[in-house]
Write a structure and sequence with these properties.
Elements: E1 2-3, E2 6-7, H1 10-14, E3 18-22, H2 25-37, E4 47-51, H3 58-65, E5 74-78, H4 83-95, H5 101-106, E6 109-111, H6 116-124, H7 126-135, H8 139-146, H9 156-164, H10 170-181, H11 189-199
Parallel strand pairs: 3-4, 3-5, 5-6
Antiparallel strand pairs: 1-2
Amino acid sequence: MDVAGISVDLARLSEAGQIILVEGASDKAALEVLAERRGQALGRGGRYVVAMGGATSVGHFLDLLGPRGLGLRLAGLCDAAQEDHFRTALERGGLGAVWTRAEMEALGFYVCTADLEDELIRAAGIAAVEHIIQAQGELRSLRIFQQQPAQRRQSASQQLHRFMGTRSGRKSRYARLMAAALDPDRVPRPLDRVLAHVSSGW
């Protein structure tokens, strides 16, 4: 069936033990790679990541999968700009009043400092991210992008962030590559904690 325009395999999800709701495909890609590295493969064993196609869809997914729907065990990840939207949706979805970030985290929902790409770029470091881009044969494209007038005043981190969003599929590809390259001790806290929440079995 479709939920907020996203095709969902409801039969499969109804049998899931744990579901992580994320905004988009890049969040899903990063979490799946990090989980695989921990021997905690998502997509098998009743653990799934669902990319909702944007934060505004979270209410629809909570209605379907949460306590007023299938009653599944849920966790989630969102961008800082969407924190209030998620908090409101959690309360309306029947998970209880959520006033603070700590209360969100107690439910298994974690907030990126800015967004996923920001978390991964800071964790990996500029040099490491540029090395990944070079390995993909796109360093020249990055340098040309950095010379655009609109980019010259931006920080290196901001330039990398925006570069990843300039072509369809690039965000997901680099999210996967950065997650694969991260030192295990430098996994961004929101990603680390949501995976730990799932691993704990609630």
